[in-house]
Structure formats: C-alpha cells, structure tokens
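Feature request, filed as a ticket because there's no other form

It would be nice if the structure record came with a short human-readable summary line next to the tokens. Right now we just get the raw output. Example of a typical job, pasted below so the devs can see what we mean:
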Amino acid sequence: MRFATLGLYHEANTFSPLKADRRMFGNGGVVRDEEIVCDYADSATTLGGYFTAARRMGIEIEPILFAFVTPIGAITEDAFEWLVGEMLAELQARGPWDGVLLNLHGAAVAEHLPDADGEIATRVRRVVGPDVPVGAVLDLHANVSRRLVEALTVTLVYQTNPHVDAKERGIDCTRLVAAAARGEIRPVQALVPLPLVVNIARQDTAEEPMAELMAKAREVAGWPGMLSASVVEGFPYADVPQMGMSCIAIHDGDEFEATVAAQELANQVWKRRSGLQALGITVTEALDLAVREPVGPVVLLDVGDNIGGGAPGDSTVILQAALDRGAPPLVQTLCDPDSARQCVAAGEGSEVHLRVGAKHVHSAGRPVPVHGTVRAVSDGRFEEPTATHGGFHFFDQGPTAVLDTAEGHTLVIGSKAVMNSSLQQLLSVGVDPARYHIVVAKGVNSPRAAYGAIARRMVVVDTDGITAMNLDRFTYRHRRKPLYPFEAAEFPE
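Raw output as currently delivered:
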C-alpha cells in the first residue's frame, strides 16, 4: 500500500495581533519530501508515529509537505492558500493513494477561515475522493468541528497533557487507516460537542478530574466493536464557533454504537464541569510560596505568557516582581531579539545595560532595566532526545545569549519564542536550572514534562497576558452561547 502524509499544524491564538504569515512559515517552518523524513521520522511526534508504523507494516509512505510555526495569531490568507495549494497540487499529481495521513492541530484559524483544519481536510477529501481512507491525529487542544470529522475516516486525539503520546497516536492512526484501506474495518465516527470550556489550569491529564475522564475514555474504547474514544479539551484562546470541549468515538460499522459511546463520554465530562474550572494565585502569592520553600527549584508557571498557547514569551511581570522584593536567584527565558542581538554583539564576558522584555503591544508588563554580564552566546539550536510535549526533537530559538544580572538572576534571551518544554533549552547554553531557587516557565502544561523531574514544587501563577487563566479578561465575538462557565448552559445527560 502507498500512503501520503502532509499537514499544516498550527494553534492559533486569535487574541494575538501577530499573524502566522508567509515570512514566518518561510523562515524554517516548512519542510518538504525527504526533509520531513530527516526531521521527523525518528522523533516522538505524530509524524514519527506515522513513519514508524509504516515501516513495521510494510507501507510505502510518501511525505509531501509539512508546515509548522510556534503558536501565534491566525494564519494569513496568503500563507494559508500558498501552503495548502502546494500540498493539494502535489497530492493530486502524485496520486492515486491507498490512504492519507494528515498532521493537523485542530485549533488552526486562518484570517478568512475560522475552521482552517476542517477546510484542509475537506479539500484533501475532494482530491482523493470518497473511498480513500484519510486519518488525522489532533492535539488535545483541538476545537473540533463536524466538518473536520465528516471529512476524515479516522480522527484520533492525543490523550496526555503534557502531550507525550503523539507518536503512539500516530501509530494507532496508521494502523486504523491501513485496516480501512484493506477493507478489514469500516470506521464510523461520532462527535459530541459540549457547551463547556475547561480552564487551562485543569488540563493536566495526570491530575483530577482529567485523569478520571481519560481513564473513562480508555474504558469506552474497550467496548465491543469500538476502535477509539477520545476526550478533547479544546483551546479557549481561539475565538471561533467550535471552541470548547468535545468527545469523539469510532466504532467498526455501527453509527448508533459510536454515538452512544461519544455521548457516554460527554455525559461524564459534563458531570465534572465545575471541577474543570480554576482560580489561580497572584504573582505576589507565588513568590511568597517560593521564598518560603527551603530548597528549590520552585517552578513558577507563568500562565499568561504561555508560549505554547500563542503568547509572545516576553512577559516581565514575574521578573519585575522578583527584582522589587529581592527574591532568591531565578532563571527564565525571554524572547527579545533586540536584547539578544546586543548581547551577542557585545560578546561573552562583556557587561551590558539593557531594557529587556515586553516589546509588543500585547506583552504583559513593561521593559525591565537590567545590568549584567554576558555569560554565553549561542545560535539557539538545541535537540531534545526524549518524548517531550508534542514529541518535537529539534528546536531553534535563534541567536541567544545568557545574561547573569547584578542581582544574581539569569536570563536566557532568545530571538524566537520557543516553548519551555525541554531542559535542553537551558542546558544547551550551559545553564543548569536545578541550581536555581526559582525557575520561571512560560506555560502551564507543556513545561511539566521537562521541569517536573527537577522541581521541588510547581506553582500555577495567574499572570496577565493573552493566555491568562481567567477567561473573563477576554472579549469573545464568535464563540457559541451559552457556554459554561461564561453562561449557565444545559446539556442532556
């Protein structure tokens, strides 16, 4: 059998004024053909799962194009049509195919398309026709539309947060698409959207109530005839009609049974809706907790500047508060190309005076004056050998500098926003986070897979920013109503 694999993987924060444009994708965000094999075949990503399963099953898999940028605002119409147009032209020209494996996020938004993932899947379906099985693995933060599910034969979803099961889900998807292509199964899918948003601080699947809900999904997936069952958390920072939680079930041939299974999962989610909400603690309270800990590191999760949710990664809110109170030594990253450039130009061992961070209109905090010594400079490239959040292996934060401030803090200043999901981000530039009393990690779930191993304590901090915990800070114009907890909502149990 011969499968194609392709995808546009983007999580769009529609509250960000920065767009995912052609320049951004063109700056290392697009790989084609054998480049995809080189970058992803041995990784713990969904694509890594596709390639691994294909090798095991003797399937010829032909990579076409894969596009990815760190979460930011909506994709521009120009970039979307450029990338998807090329994908589809190649898919058409190189066919026919026995199956197609898509790598989509599920929370992509384009300027002209609120359901960008559904649009991609629908266009792919038009190219290959109704009989070729098309599968996709979505991120757990997907805002799933009926249009997307109807265009796919198999819709799987990560079931861990932090997302460390991407490769396994890719293997599962390949297996099911191959079985469908051989006529061994007839996948029938059911989607049940819930009028519900889960708070970002309640999305760790190792903690309740998500742990119980994921266990329930595994139980339902084991029912007779079931092929898969997924709870989907959704992404609340994409203001689109399909935003919110959902459940997907796939049965071998029986639409009624698939619907019963998806509804059973959805009922269990709805019963726990109040437990899926959260209130965070302030920066002052978080620093108080950190200072009282006799031993570090205490990891402060800067929710409002969550790079993995589309924030710019340059908030100075915690840094300024730590300076104001004379907190113990901390280390954190900052995305600040201008400051990184000044440090690199000055060179290692040089003293510099900078105003760091908060360089965008949507940044939290204000630029902070710092005086310090440039410890190291780097090209910003690093590798993560283990299965970290999303399974990504290669990272590039652009020209990077390590600055030791006069107050004893360390800032790793990069030129590109990169999720704090790998210890190698710091270790690769000679910074050992385990030696600091406080580590500021820009995110809430993605850093846990990295910093959980060294943290004495992890504290979720309700900071300002475009990924803030308190969703009442945002003005939504396109979401469904009613939607709990914004409004009282009813759901048939």
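Something like this underneath would help us a lot:
The chain has a mean pLDDT of 96.
Residues 77-94 form the longest helix (18 residues).
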